[in-house]
Amino acid sequence: MEMEREPLPVALVTGGNHGIARVICTHLAQVGYPVAVNYRSGEAAARALVRELQEQGVPAEAFAADVSQPDAVQRMALQVQASLGAPLVLVHAAGPFIDERKRVDTYSEDQWRAMIDGNLSSAFYLARAVVPGMRAAHFGRIITFGFPRSQDASGWPLRGAYAAAKTGLVSLTRTMALELAQDGITANMVVPGNVRPDFKEKEIAEARGIHDPQTPIGRPATGGDLARAVLFLATREADAITGAVLEVTGGVDVVRSQR
Predict the structure, then answer these.
(1) What is the CATH number of the domain that holds 115?
(2) N or C: which end of the chain has fewer CB within 10 A?
(3) Using CA of residue 165, residue 168, residue 170, residue 173, what is the dihedral sign?
């Protein structure tokens, strides 16, 4: 007699209405995770994605919140729990980035604060909101996003504010891994390389056969590459992996290549 599968936990994906995070949402839904799609702007895109996920037969809802604001994060966590259940998988994929290359002394205070609050403080606010539910379930998966070499506290010339935030996020992720291990909660970081805008929402199969001389593996990296890594780290079988920084870069070193 075939055993019934245990229902998969609710996954909360920040910035889930576009880019790499959108592909992560679709991959999670394909295997049965109920998905809470967070967005700050772009409500129409979030609603369209939710309809797509619901058509796959999984519960899904969209939740508006600026994750750099602690009160907004707390409200969202309560809304997700009331609508879908306690989020036991957190994929924190949202995070601002300044395209302009700037020396540290040329950042405005607003730009600096946006990088730190959006990429680092937001992870603290989210963890504080969802960890109690994870601890009660004795299961949780926290997945953050970084940049290559962030685990080495490497300097990134002309990207100083972003690099400082993400380097701090490595330490926060690894601290949570140590502090929460006894509660059945893992915390890991996934690191993309240079995923070009036109490949952020594409699957691996769509990049096969496309030659990319700038990527050592020979093809462009895609959102699908990152989604597969997240999908594995979210599973119960990945419970021995915590405090890890997993580079999914295709061999690209964005820090060295931009010097």
Answers:
(1) 3.40.50.720
(2) N
(3) negative
Active-site pick, 33, 39, 125, 162: 162
Residue whose pair of structure tokens reads 């040329």 in the numeric block: 106
Q: Assess whether 39 carries a catalytic annotation.
A: no
Distance of CA 160 to the CA centre of its chain: 21
pTM over cut 0.70: yes
Domain count, the chain: 1
Q: What is the mean pLDDT of residues 199-225?
A: 83
3-class DSSP assignment, residue 225: helix
pLDDT in tens, 33-68: 999 999 999 999 999 999 999 999 999 999 999 999
Residue showing tokens 């700050």: 40
137 in any annotated domain: yes
Report the side by side order of strands in the sheet with 60-64: 60-64, 35-39, 10-14, 87-92, 140-145, 185-192, 245-248
